[in-house]
Amino acid sequence: MQADTIITGATVITMDAQRRVIRDGAVAFCGGTIVAVGKARDLAGIAAREVVDGTGFLLTPGFINAHVHLTETLIRGFVPDDLPFDETLGRWVIPLYQAHSPAEQAIAARLAVAAMLRSGTTAFIEAGTVIAFDEVMAAIEGTGIRGRVGRWTEDRAWHAGDDAVSLTRNACAALEQDLAHYPQDGRLVAAWPNLIGHNTATDALWRRATDLAKQTGTGVSAHMSPVAGDSEWYLAQTGKRAVEHLGDLGVLGPHLNLVHMVHLDPNEMDLVARSSTNVTHCPGAALRGGYGVTRYGLFPEMLQAGVTIALGTDGADSHDIMRDMTLMAALFRDAREDRALFPAHAVLEMATLNGAKVLGLSDSIGALATGMKADLVAHDIRRPEWVPLNNPVEQLVASADGRSVHSVWVDGVRVVEAHRCTLIDEDALYREGQAAANAMLARSGLPLVSKWPII
């Protein structure tokens, strides 16, 4: 057997059908595809152009971030964290989005990609909030990451005089254009007909986005019910809660990824389960946002009902999915006083196999197995949080974070080596990022709010 690369002597968490964890293991891949996984001694006969000594490393599948805002990085730490949800969005987040130039959105997206790769994320779903769509797609195309990206899409006529017909027609046309220009044709980064969600899309736009996803084999990702306001709005306007209304529209299903989903009632949860609609939970964002997730969230019940739950990092505060894995393994244990909820192995499935299912890529990513894509992460376990190594799965979720990520491969290409991106000039990017943030925030006219003096 021939291979381009073999990594040998590592501990391997495969996430394969048997969920094998292999000590002194090896993974071989050729042309972006894994050709063998097993004990190092059993793969010793494979001829490879490159042999990587995996001693002192833990190999996992690449993590999948099922909800990330690519272009929020320039406002990291700038938005006050003690304001109500509606005020945060209306006065700060949305105006700051709109203040970005296309070049600044491109820089912000590259910063997000660098942060994800450096912490082991190899695939992502963007939140549907890219304004400068073509510029962002060009900026991230050569970074080596795998992703599905959506533009800022809404069509609700909020103001008197708005041309409702034109808003819907233009929104649908933009989605159709994106899918034509950036199809899922084997390229790493492609377009999805994502929606902002909440109450911003008309019934016509929901139906059209759903039709486009089904026609193109893509998916739809949309925000829904992080706080009570979404369902309150739908109840007032339609007499149904948010997910119930989507069910009446016929847009629920395995193509759909609904994000946050904290304020559901049991009937909505049942609709999600019966329709095989996917849910992405962002634990860090929910806790920081004060959504009431530990009080209201039905995530243990959703898991028991068979709902596919993936994980996301959401906004600018962190792009390290491993931090959200740690939170996911803890928050409902405390809320329900039940230590059996969300064990480490279930959380790791959310960040790998479940994310792959949401992406529609279960047959190619999410596990280290023969025939799967060579998307994998090498964690340096010669660090204090890893020593001694007893139970790799438990320690990955409970003890580690993205700082131990040493190397990352996507589609067989090494995109991180020795804790640095290989296809991104990080030093130049960080200089550009700071300069772009300074310029954009100055133009916004919004103040830097700090409880303590910054002098």
Supply the number of helical segments. Answer: 16
C-alpha geometry: globular
Rounded to an integer in angstroms, the radius of gyration calculated over CA atoms is 22 Å
Mean pLDDT rating: 97
CATH superfamily of the largest domain: Metal-dependent hydrolases
CATH class of the largest domain: Alpha Beta
Give the structural class.
alpha/beta
* DSSP strand content: 15-25%
Describe the sheet with the most strands: 9 strands, mixed
Poorly predicted regions are none
- Classify the helix fraction into a percent range: 25-40%
Number of strands: 17
Provide the domain count.
2
C-alpha termini separation? 63 Å
Q: Might you state the CATH topology name of the largest domain?
A: TIM Barrel
Q: What would CATH call the architecture of the largest domain? A: Alpha-Beta Barrel
Domain Amidohydrolase-related: 59-415
InterPro entries: Amidohydro-rel, Metal-dep_hydrolase_composite, Metal_Hydrolase, MTA/SAH_deaminase
Organism: Novosphingobium guangzhouense
Keywords: Hydrolase
